[in-house]
Design a protein that fits this description.
With about 475 residues, the protein is α+β, with helices and mostly antiparallel strands. It contains 16 helices and 17 strands. The strands form four sheets. The protein has an eight-stranded mixed beta sheet, with helices on one face. A hairpin with a 2-residue loop joins strand 7 and strand 8. Helix 1 crosses helix 4, helix 2 runs parallel beside helix 6 and helix 6 runs antiparallel to helix 7. It binds adenosine-5'-diphosphate and magnesium ion. The site of magnesium ion has 5 residues, from helix 2.
Length: about 475
């Protein structure tokens, strides 16, 4: 029987791929604007006609494309951004698949103009439905300009299913906002049928948000900042009074300068607003997460905005606590739980890291007897006894002892409640009230021991912190940090 399997021509393969990458005009805007950001542009201007159906134009002042690379840029899997699979785990660019331009040119009529700083003149090139047309010189500013006309002109079924101009424009605006919000240092403009919709100069994050959503939002933005060993989060959460109906609230999550959606982290924010807002209304939030790219998986479907995080549960807790802290500072809720100046660091325990944990060294003198009075009187022996010698060398020294070997008057001390331990208070509190409530004779040595003793007994090496990390981790998993 005759062999039936054939390789698809590139043009067909690209059109199939385009079905995934280019779903609507907004996908084109997203890809082209992200390319401009990756090219180091400081100004990006987007022009659309008829919801992007007739024309999408993206102009940047980035690095440009070399004449030799222009054709290559339109090949599938052609990218300047990664060379090895490992690079996927250290991505610093938006793009990496090398699929966008190939997909776009396979379903539209494209004109590329580009000029690098070092080029005398720019280069203009036409590509129609994937086929290269004429190339000529052009006088343009440094950077790249892409014109995408008649999207899906050669795939009528797709063109027919494009939504109304206003719906497609709304999708484009969404994509534009997502890139603009995480790149406030880039001047960004959007023209819709020649009318400026956004003219956003380079600014701070807050200014960018205000420039985009209007002055009224400024007073509502509460700063949020938290830095832990697994994640840094900056941004803003909205005042509860500014909460809006579903679909109207400005809610944005970014990780490493990339917009993403996460119903799970959304809940972490919403849980912090519990009881502060009515059911059915939603606060604004703009959270910018920074994590080690190796602990993220963004190598998923090109148009999907979900991202997989390795430390998802811990990040949930950190987001929730950070939002509460911001709301607490504003006075919307009482500052709770811990009176800490700094946000709590919640390091992550990773299975297998146990071997890194060092047991703090403890030196013991098996012969040491704290009630051995001879021992008390000999500073040399006392110091040989290690840590416990501080005790014997300080306040125990001032006590006298009965025939039973116990300090005199110890029954009285006991009656006074010195050693009654109230389990409802923390050990620190018990210790503090022990000091403050009793009228002790001035004993500077004792005070010194109290103030220094604790610090000195805490192991100073890192294993102590790691042990703490382990404990916090187990508390996290047991729900200790859930705030209700
Ligand atoms: P990717 O962004 O995944 O690399 P694209 O198909 O979007 O793939 O782009 C292919 C290549 O074309 C990029 O890697 C880059 O080298 C070049 N390129 C695309 N757009 C621009 C631009 N605006 N400025 C400079 N180079 C660009
Ligand atoms: Mg790209």
């Amino acid at each position: 029987m005759e062999n039936l399997i054939k390789l698809l021509p590139d043009s067909v393969a690209n059109q199939i791929a385009a079905g995934e990458v280019v779903q609507r005009p907004a996908s084109v805007v997203k890809e082209l604007v992200e390319n401009a950001v990756d090219a180091g542009a400081t100004t990006i201007t987007v022009n659309i006609q008829e919801g992007g159906r007739e024309l999408i134009q993206v102009i940047d002042n980035g690095c440009g494309i070399s004449p030799g690379d222009t054709k290559m840029a339109f090949e599938r899997h052609a990218t300047s951004k990664i060379t090895r699979a490992d690079d996927l785990y250290a991505l610093t660019t938006f793009g990496f698949r090398g699929e966008a331009l190939a997909s776009i040119v396979s379903v539209s009529e494209v004109e590329l103009r580009t000029k690098r700083e070092t080029d005398e003149v720019g280069l203009r090139m036409y590509v129609n439905g994937g086929a290269f047309g004429e190339t000529s010189a052009v006088n343009i500013q440094n950077g790249t300009q892409l014109l995408v006309k008649n999207l899906f002109y050669n795939v009528p079924a797709r063109r027919k299913f494009l939504k109304s101009k206003s719906v497609e424009t709304k999708h484009i605006v969404d994509e534009f906002q997502r890139v603009a919000l995480c790149n406030p240092n880039i001047e960004m403009n959007l023209y819709d049928n020649d009318t400026p919709r956004y003219k956003l100069p380079a600014a701070t994050r807050r200014q960018r948000i205000v420039g985009m959503f209007g002055k009224h939002i400024n007073a509502q933005l509460l700063d949020l900042q938290v830095e832990t060993s697994i994640i840094t989060i900056e941004g803003f959460v909205g005042h509860p009074q500014g909460a809006k109906k579903s679909g109207q609230a400005e809610q944005f999550l970014f990780v490493n300068n990339r917009f993403f959606k996460s119903p799970y982290f959304h809940k972490a924010v919403m849980a912090a607003y519990e009881k502060l807002i009515q059911p059915g209304v939603y606060p604004a939030y703009f959270l910018y997460l920074q994590v080690d790219p190796s602990r993220l998986d963004i190598n998923i479907h090109p148009t999907k905005t979900e991202i997989k995080f390795e430390d998802e549960t811990a990040i949930w807790q950190i987001i929730n606590a950070a939002v509460r802290e911001s709301l607490g500072k504003m006075g919307a809720v009482p500052l709770m739980d811990f009176d800490t100046q700094e946000p709590i660091d919640i390091p992550v325990f990773r299975p297998g890291s146990e071997q890194d944990i060092k047991i703090p060294p403890v030196s013991l003198n098996p012969d040491f007897n704290p009630f051995d009075r001879e021992n008390e009187s000999s500073p040399a022996q006392a110091s040989a006894a290690g840590r416990t010698s501080r005790r014997s060398g300080s306040f125990l020294q001032h006590m006298t002892y009965g025939p039973d070997g116990m300090p005199e008057g110890w029954e009285e001390l006991s009656k006074d409640g010195y050693d009654t331990f109230d389990p409802t208070t923390t050990p620190g509190e018990t210790f503090r009230s022990f000091i403050l409530d009793k009228e002790e004779p001035e004993d500077t040595e004792l005070q010194e021991f109290i103030s220094k003793g604790f610090d000195q007994q805490a192991p100073q090496d890192e294993s102590w912190a790691e042990q703490g990390a382990l404990e916090i981790e187990s508390e996290l998993s047991s729900g200790f940090f859930s705030y209700g």
